[in-house]
Design a protein that fits this description.
Layout (H helix, E strand, L loop, with lengths): L1 H21 L16 H4 L3 E3 L9 E2 L5 E5 L3 E5 L3 E3 L3 E5 L4 E4 L4 E4 L6 E5 L7 E8 L3 E4 L1 E2 L2 E2 L4 E8 L6 E2 L5 E3 L2 E3 L6 E2 L5 E3 L2 E3 L7 E2 L5 E3 L2 E3 L6 E2 L5 E3 L2 E3 L6 E2 L5 E3 L2 E2 L2 E2 L1 E3 L2 E4 L9 E3 L3 E2 L2 E4 L5 E3 L3 E2 L2 E4 L9 E3 L3 E2 L2 E4 L5 E2 L3 E3 L2 E4 L6 E7 L2 E3 L2 E7 L3
Parallel strand pairs: 1-4, 3-6, 4-7, 5-8, 6-9, 7-10, 8-10, 9-11, 10-14, 11-15, 14-16, 14-17, 15-18, 16-19, 17-20, 18-21, 19-22, 20-23, 21-24, 22-25, 23-26, 24-27, 25-28, 26-29, 27-30, 28-31, 29-32, 31-34, 32-35, 33-36, 34-37, 35-38, 36-39, 37-40, 38-41, 39-42, 40-43, 41-44, 42-45, 43-45, ...
Antiparallel strand pairs: 2-3, 12-13
């Protein structure tokens, strides 16, 4: 019966022994301190508050602007900005992010000016998440020949401006924006611009979307603009876009440009895997009009050529349903291969060069096929061919 007493004695001594071995008492010296970071520490941002005092970062008492942003960083609106001065916000520093926070920058007194300006030396800036309306330019990033480079516009709605909705500089990325009812065009970008998932509609006196050389437009829609739907500079790419009900040409690509997988009233440039149609009864526009080549595409016109190409046409179908004698199914400057052309008034297929392995027909006064050389072709409605090979 002595063994339990020995164990109890050992256990009674154990806490003191553990304290001695642990190097100090286990009782905390005081309450734990604050360990969480503030929101300002996690994401430093500066609010733009009307009437606030000037700081080194933000000027608020300028006669021409409600706010001038002078330092890099992130800034945000705290409410709608009712613009009564000549302009809304001017960004005069590189690397600025301006978050409209879903609010609107809108003119409530006076006329003209710019909703948001990004000065030409303010590179790599972002303007996002809000509405700009009632100015000359909604978002302006280029002044004459001087351009703000490599900026970003995201999720903006820009409308009812007397000039251009978004005037972007070289290298800008414009994503998820909507521009409408601007009197000088919807989106106008410089060179090397990327436009993704944007919509331009009901813009007056200009094109829906216009970009400079080496630009890319993807997944965007341009409709009911009084100018062209989409216009690019040389060497550009237009993919999976729609242009319809525009007063002028649907898609206009500069030399060396490629239009792929698009639906449009008209397209100019090299055209690949595309559909073009003009359906107005008295339309004088081509279904597809290309300065370069047309490949694997369908073009239909109610009053002019189904396909008009400055280069070659291959694996394509062109049709005109108008009765005009000058409206051809396919009209090409180069050769036509493996294609079909139909016309209700003019030639089925017309080219001064060679037509091979194709079919042309007309129900009007033209010819099914009109060319210098025809190889392995068939026609309906007559022919005007200088030399025929492998044909009846």
């Amino acid at each position: 019966m002595k063994t339990p007493l020995v164990l109890l004695a050992v256990l009674a001594l154990a806490p003191n022994s553990l304290v001695a071995q642990g190097g100090g008492p286990l009782t905390p010296p005081g309450a734990p301190g604050v360990t969480m970071k503030t929101l300002q520490e996690i994401e430093p941002r500066t609010p733009l508050i009307p009437g606030a005092a000037n700081t080194a970062a933000v000027t608020t008492n300028d006669a021409a602007y409600h706010f001038i942003i002078n330092q890099p960083g992130s800034y945000y609106l705290t409410g709608n900005l009712a613009v009564t001065k000549p302009n809304g916000i001017d960004i005069r520093a590189k690397g600025v992010t301006l978050d409209l926070g879903g609010f609107e920058i809108g003119r409530t007194a006076g006329t003209g000016g710019n909703g948001v300006e990004v000065d030409y030396l303010s590179f790599r800036c972002t303007v996002k998440n809000g509405t700009v309306t009632g100015f000359d330019y909604g978002l302006r990033c280029i002044f004459f020949t001087l351009s703000s480079y490599a900026g970003t516009a995201v999720q903006l709605s820009v409308g009812n401006n007397t000039q251009v909705g978004i005037r972007a500089g070289d290298g800008w990325e414009i994503t998820g924006c909507e521009v409408h009812q601007n009197n000088g065009g919807g989106i106008v970008g410089g060179r090397g611009v990327t436009i993704t998932n944007c919509t331009a509609h009901l813009n007056i006196g200009g094109d829906g979307i216009t970009v400079g050389a080496g630009s890319t437009i993807t997944g965007s829609t341009s409709y009911q603009n009084t100018g062209n739907g989409i216009v690019t500079g040389t060497g550009s790419t237009v993919t999976d876009c729609t242009a319809h009900s525009n007063t002028s040409t649907g898609i206009v690509g500069g030399d060396g440009s490629t239009v792929t997988g698009c639906t449009a009233y008209n397209a100019v440039g090299n055209v690949l895997n595309s559909l073009g149609a003009t359906t107005a009864t008295n339309s004088t526009a081509d279904g597809i009009s290309a300065l370069g080549n047309v490949t694997n595409s369908n073009g239909t016109s109610a009053g002019d050529d189904g396909i008009e190409a400055g280069g070659n046409v291959s694996s394509s179908t062109g049709e005109t349903i108008g009765a005009g004698a000058g409206a051809h199914g396919i009209r090409a400057t180069g050769s036509v291969t493996n294609s079909k052309g139909q016309s209700a008034g003019g030639d089925g297929i017309s080219t001064p060069r060679t037509i091979s392995h194709s079919f042309g027909s007309t129900s009007g006064t033209g010819f099914g096929l009109q060319c210098t050389i025809a190889i392995g072709c068939t026609s309906s409605g007559g022919e005007s061919i200088t030399n025929k090979y492998l044909m009846p």
